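Long-time lurker. I teach an intro course on protein structure, and each term I like to show students one example going from raw sequence to a predicted 3D structure in token notation. This year I'd like something fresh instead of my usual example. Would anyone be willing to generate the tokens for the chain below so I can use it in lecture? Attribution to the forum is fine with me.
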Amino acid sequence: MVAKKKAIYAGSFDPITNGHIDILNRALKIFDEVVLLLAISPTKKPTFTAKQRAEMLKSIFKNEPRVKIDMCNELVVDYARRNKIGCLIRGLRPSGDFDSESQMASMNYHLYPDIETVFLMTGGKFYFVSSSMVKEAYKWKGDVSKFVPKEVLKYLEKYTKRIYVNK
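-- Reply from a regular --
Happy to contribute to a lecture. Here you go:
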């Protein structure tokens, strides 16, 4: 029996964007299964709770059996080691992600030499999109519908206050 090729695509996904989904869909062309790992960081102050982000992800990928949703509050390489997964997926935007991402990949390799990192460039129409930019634009009444799935828009509408400017 041939082992499944598995990878982890980790992030805070606060919220997930169409850029993240573009990377995930391309990773699914390479791997049999991708764990979309909601990484809980003690240093980040997310807009959405871990539970809300997990609900969003499960809703978005409910019809994709090759995407597994999980969360962790440990080093991603420790999660990978424990689950016997040897590959991490990282998305790169042409806005300077390479330096920090290559440092992280090197650190991960030193912590867990059996791990490899695969970098995928974000698609042309999403290279400038980030979760932070989506939240900021939404707060100022910007239309972010082309940057996030409809499930994310529902959460933005329910949990994010918009700023109204008097003119």
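Some talking points for your students: The first helix runs from residue 18 to 27. The domain at 6-127 is CATH 3.40.50.620 (Rossmann fold).
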